[in-house]
Amino acid sequence: MTEVDFITQVHQSTKRDYVKRVVEHDKAACAEAALTWSEAYWDGDRSTGYGGYRYDGRWRPIAEKIVAHYGLAPDAKILDIGCGKAFLLYEFTQVLPNATVRGIDISTYGIQHAKEEVRPFLQEGRAEDLPFEDDEFDLVISINTLHNLCIQDLWSALGHMQRVGRGAKWLNVEAYRNEREKANLLYWQLTCRAFHTPAEWQWIFEQTGYTGDYSFIYFE
């Protein structure tokens, strides 16, 4: 279990006004809209989510780094838990044309508006109840998803992630290292349920038997 960062550069490319997020809108109402995981979250106003989540190629370097780091075979089988619109899965198919990709997400809207080329390989479902066989995948990833789960579902999701992967596993979650980052996370987040420090996350990984790699994003 090792901390491996692939996406901080993407996270830091977005400028955030944390206080504005709280004072300009009814934050509770915005969170309720985001938690429908519908158009409001993906392609609605910025106050309720991404403000328009569109393919722009930013995930290609991430896919290349992951493939190289884990030495994935050309025909690797890859699962993305919380795949959303599956832009990263699409990039995996470009880096590894013979790979088999699968994606699962809670959002019907996200899947319906996913990258067309990989849409047939996606399904609606929950991280805490993965409908896949034991040791089915060479790589299992989950980006900015598991912190959205309540503790009992998080426990189950990590167990399932461990179960279905026969090879590399990597996840990314939100965390905070100090009071300023905690405040910024609270101001910015819309869907987060698991608010933890890196040490707390690492303890959770150990308790659930998760042995894969991980990274954190911080709201500095």
CATH level-1 class: Alpha Beta
Total beta strand runs: 6
> What's the alpha carbon Rg, rounded to whole Å?
17 Å
Q: What count of domains describes the coordinates?
A: 1
Order of strands, widest sheet: 3-2-1-4-5-6
Percentage of residues assigned to helices? 25-40%
| Category by helix and strand content | alpha/beta
Helices and strands, in order, run as HHHHHEHEHEEHEHHE
Overall morphology = globular
By CATH's scheme, which homologous superfamily applies? Vaccinia Virus protein VP39
Q: What does the main sheet amount to?
A: 6 strands, parallel
Rounded average pLDDT:
96
Question: What share of residues are in beta strands?
Answer: 15-25%
Helix count from the secondary structure assignment: 10
| Uncertain residue ranges | none
CATH topology: Rossmann fold
Tell me the distance between the termini. 25 Å
Question: Could you outline the blueprint of secondary structure elements for this entry?
Answer:
Layout: H1 8-12, H2 18-23, H3 27-34, H4 39-43, H5 60-70, E1 77-81, H6 87-95, E2 100-105, H7 108-112, E3 122-124, E4 137-143, H8 151-164, E5 165-174, H9 179-188, H10 198-208, E6 213-217
Parallel strand pairs: 1-2, 1-4, 2-3, 4-5, 5-6
